[in-house]
Inverse folding.
């Protein structure tokens, strides 16, 4: 129902270890109307990460070329690596009515909101810092030093949650995904989503002779 039947852009942010990835995967398996934006990043893949699934792992040189050529909607550096959102696939999907999910950090989210006005942003929170620490330590792919850096980065990110439209606590994955879907579904009935329909009804009303029809 959005103007020109364009797709919608959803931003999902939250600190590392809050369960964003699992939530995102579950959402994408439930919702075939949503495509995931594949970020180009310069950190090496973690064990089990498949290139092209969530990230394209590229060299610093290639990333800087993309940046120079204006191919990125936004980018940021995180713990010494570049992370960026390629512009073209998003423009293509949105223009043909597909909804797109960006899983990006708070700085990236800020930049996207500056460029694109029509964005729904959702922040995923851990139930507590204690739980976040346990999740990050339990992951065992990162060194103790990196876990501390991620915790500090988490505090910085959580203090930006006020910039988001919705905040969802991930205490239980199924509940968190249900809540995320509820937000996405409710968004279809926001005034912004229904604006075109409301205007069409009003436009149609102008062309009717209501008094002659005795309807009012
Ligand atoms: P990780 O290395 O743990 O996969 O991701 C680190 C952070 O980078 C996460 O907060 C994640 O949301 C963010 N991130 C992933 N892709 C992008 C992107 O394309 N742009 C920005 N700005 N952040 C991203």
């Amino acid at each position: 129902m959005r103007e020109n039947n364009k797709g919608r852009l959803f931003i999902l942010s939250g600190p590392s270890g809050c369960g964003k990835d699992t939530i995102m995967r579950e959402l994408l398996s439930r919702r075939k109307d949503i495509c995931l934006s594949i970020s180009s990043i310069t950190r090496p893949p973690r064990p089990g990460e498949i290139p092209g699934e969530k990230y394209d792992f590229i060299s610093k040189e290639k990333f800087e070329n993309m940046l120079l050529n204006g191919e990125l909607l936004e980018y940021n550096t995180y713990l010494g690596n570049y992370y960026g959102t390629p512009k073209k696939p998003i423009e293509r999907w949105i223009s043909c009515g597909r909804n797109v999910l960006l899983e990006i950090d708070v700085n990236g989210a800020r930049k996207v909101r500056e460029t694109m006005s029509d964005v729904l942003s959702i922040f995923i929170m851990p139930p507590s810092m204690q739980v976040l620490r346990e999740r990050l330590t339990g992951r065992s792919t990162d060194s103790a030093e990196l876990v501390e850096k991620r915790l500090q980065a988490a505090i910085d990110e959580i203090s930006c949650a006020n910039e988001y439209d919705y905040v969802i606590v991930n205490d239980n994955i199924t509940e968190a995904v249900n809540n995320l879907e509820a937000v996405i579904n409710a968004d279809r009935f926001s005034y912004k989503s229904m604006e075109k329909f409301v205007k069409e009804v009003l436009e149609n009303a102008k062309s009717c002779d209501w008094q002659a029809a005795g309807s009012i």
User: Anything to note?
Assistant: The beta strands are 9-13, 34-36, 39-41, 55-57, 72-78, 81-86, 99-103, 119-125, 166-169.
